[in-house]
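RECORD TYPE: protein structure
NAME: Arf-GAP with coiled-coil, ANK repeat and PH domain-containing protein
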Amino acid sequence: MKIMVDFEECLKDSPRFRATIEEVEGDVCELESKLDKLVKLCIGMIDAGKAYNAANKQFVNGIRELAQQSTKDEVIESSLTKFAESLQEMINYHTILFDQAQRSIKTQLQLFVKDDIRKFKDAKKHFDKVSEEKEAALIKNAQAPRNKQHEVEEATNILTATRKCFRHIVLDYVLQINVLQSKRRSEILKSMLSFMYAHLTFFHQGYDLFSELQPLMKHLGGQLDQLVVDAAKEKRDMEQKHSTIQQKAALQDFSNDDTKLEYNVDADNGIAMEGYLFKRASNAFKTWNRRWFSIQNNQLVYQKKFKDNPTVVVEDLRLCTVKHCEDIERRFCFEVVSPTKSCMMQADSEKLRQAWIKAVQNSIATAFRDKGEDAEKLDRKSSTSTGSLDSGGETKERSLKGETALQRVLVIPGNSCCCDCGQPDPRWASINLGITLCIQCSGIHRSLGVHFSKVRSLTLDTWEPELLKLMCELGNKVINQIYEARREELGARKPNPGDPRHEVEAYIKAKYVDRRFVQRPTDDQLRSKVVSLSKQEKRLSSSSDHMPRAPPPTPKLRPGSNSSGQTVKSADSGIQNSSDESREMPPQAPSASNNSLGEAGRDASHGAQAPVLGGADTPPMAMPSTLPPPSPCKDVSFYEPKEYSPGLQLFWASCARSLPDMAEALAHGGEVNWVNTDDEKRTPLIMAVHGGSLVTCEFLLQNGSSVNQQDAQGRGPLHHATMLGHTGQVCLFLKRGANQNAADIDEKTPLSIAVDAANADIVTLLRLAKMNEEMREAEGPYSQSGDETYQDIFQDFSHMASNDPEKLNRYQAYDHQKP
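PREDICTED:
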């Protein structure tokens, strides 16, 4: 029941006001009880949903295993695989639904109870206290004797002060009551509406998914009758074949004859003859073992098991002889002798021994007759003299939400319309691509898989500050310049709003999966881009306003050659300084992305913050000018590589903090975990750490970069961020699952490095993350995200790292803390 208290009535402190207050207090207590119950029920629902999803995942994995086991039956394999994919997508939809339930019901209502109702209770305590004081003052004033003037004055003064205080407190109390009554409606309805919209999205997605699956189900249902008929026919055929083989086996048993073996040099599989033989070992015990022998490609080989690679006994039968062995105790033995060794074998019968001897002799004769052709075959097989004859080993391939995030993302150029079809007012985004999408295109993107596109709602989901900043640094215009560079040249039509879904889906797959419209760079263009990016970090660092940082990668050519192939002196010899090296590098015209970064650098140099940051969003801390620039790791140097690749472009773009160039490198096929073997096996993510940009690290992580991949020194990104004192990056890596227990080759963990450097912020983050991890392990697999203190502290650090990075610049780099 909605109860509003009148402000003027409260000053009278009438019985009607007191009755109203009592009714309000009872209503609030009941409201708190109902909300607590609803939150607990929501938690129980979420836990049950997670358990359901876990069991459902196991069931889907069972379907996949059954499909993999049925690879020889294309109908079963393809159908089960498609069903498993659809069911897995429904599990994903359920997960999103439960996540939204936690955000909209649990989190929002708990916040309402903890903040608003707690304020009401605090105001009630003050009101009750001042009410008692007022009653005491009234009683004392009434009891003051007429003839004792000083007592009268004292009681009057106390009553006046108490009444004044009472009016102040009661007005605040009534204000808190009215605000609570007004806010409860919006908070409850907002929470439930968000939850219901999540259900709406869930059922829409499920309907779309099974609408696409329905034709396959109908087609398969139409095939079932024929499949039943075919199965019955196959059963009759197999029963007939079984009977025939059984009769033949009975005749062989009756005649006591062996299976007929024939030598066939023209066999389709290249095996002229095969069967079981006993082989005498060459060890001291001369043991006999039963093995599967075969003659193939003029070689004698055997296998212990079918899956084992064949072991070659004789490489070239032309150099061998075969003979009976009658001078040993065992029967039916024969020997194959080569110039280097001999092999004693035993057949199961005399007829089998004669068949094998004849087969070996015929193989020798055939080898001599076709000497030229067989010699060529021998050359091809010589590399397998001690191993396999069959290659058979081929490799088989919390934060900002709602309108705040929406408004900040939509102001980026091109983001006011869907990136793929142009639908106005998009409400979804692909966070790893940095684009906005309409609801139809978001569903298609989600069907591509998270390795291509990760979809999130701009209105329903919670946005972390670094992720929102990432969205603001890319945008539809930048990405379309990359992924649609050749669209007009190829004559491809971009979909319009309202086009059939299958046309939009075909275009999106061609754009992001096949990357059909991406302009592939020439070798010269790629080389120019890489060299330009390798210099860009130095330009950006020099534009900062006297703020020392980790040394930028200094371009160095490999001793002995420059970019044009001319001989130059080694950079390590001390004869050629850095300015000489820079003159050796060919001048490059800045690209569009370089220009944007240059603008960001100029903004930083004048103390202004660019709306789209292209520079370091977590610059290192200021240090005394007497200290050299921090250098915790070996200097990153640019060497003339053996070849220029998109991976190398991604490597240097990560250091230069150029997100457009990074997105371009990924579009050109650059591996996100590419390893630079010329630079201590560092990865783009490690280079992003040295570049100092939190957004660059977030971009790589969202695109699948490994947060624990180590360099040649055994240091992962968390090591480098700790050594450089980049607190924001440390916070980010810990949130993304970095292993803080990993040690480098010097047995240093990130925590020991932070302790040596006396970096209290990073030590606090590492220890909190460790404690939170231990709490989660103790609570079990279905525990919540961890301690609230941990979440609050990490949220504060995330906000500081993204919005006020200078507050984190309080410590020097690791090396300069050492004596």
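COMMENT: The mean pLDDT is 75.
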